[in-house]
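Action item from last meeting closed. Structure (145 res):
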């Protein structure tokens, strides 16, 4: 049975149970019920409640997206530093050419294969899925949500 740190291409997707299986479904259900209530009992207050619920749900999603954007920036920085420390001088000048999605996918590659895989990603414009599929020795990232 896999431990929490083992990952592969098939098992690297992370779910945040509190967000995905509790808060988001409750927000959707609350919005739907507020709209149904506003339609069945028209009035400014009921319409306002539906709008307020929609605003709260939008805020919840945006807050999650802000956290993911910060994680992406940190991953970009970490992977650029890792590639710079592991790669040759000639390769270092090409690191900025890697797209964010490629850098995010490369974080799963072991130190021994990350530079050749990054060079291949640049030469063939590999997608993040193609990069992840090409990884032989998976480096887990259990903290990403």
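Sequence:
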């Amino acid at each position: 049975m896999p431990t929490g740190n083992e990952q592969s291409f098939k098992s690297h997707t992370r779910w945040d149970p509190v967000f995905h299986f509790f808060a988001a479904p409750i927000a959707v259900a609350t919005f739907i019920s507020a709209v149904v209530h506003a339609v069945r009992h028209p009035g400014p207050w009921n319409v306002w409640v539906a709008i307020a619920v929609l605003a709260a749900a939008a805020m919840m999603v945006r807050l999650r997206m802000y956290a993911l954007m910060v994680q992406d920036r940190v991953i970009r920085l970490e992977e650029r530093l890792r590639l710079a420390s592991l790669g040759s001088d000639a390769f270092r000048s090409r690191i900025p050419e890697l797209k964010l999605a490629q850098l995010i996918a490369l974080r799963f590659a072991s130190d021994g294969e990350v530079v050749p895989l990054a060079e291949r990603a640049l030469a063939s414009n590999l997608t993040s899925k193609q990069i992840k599929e090409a990884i032989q020795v998976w480096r887990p990232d259990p903290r990403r949500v």
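Note appended to the action item: Residues 17-134 form one domain.
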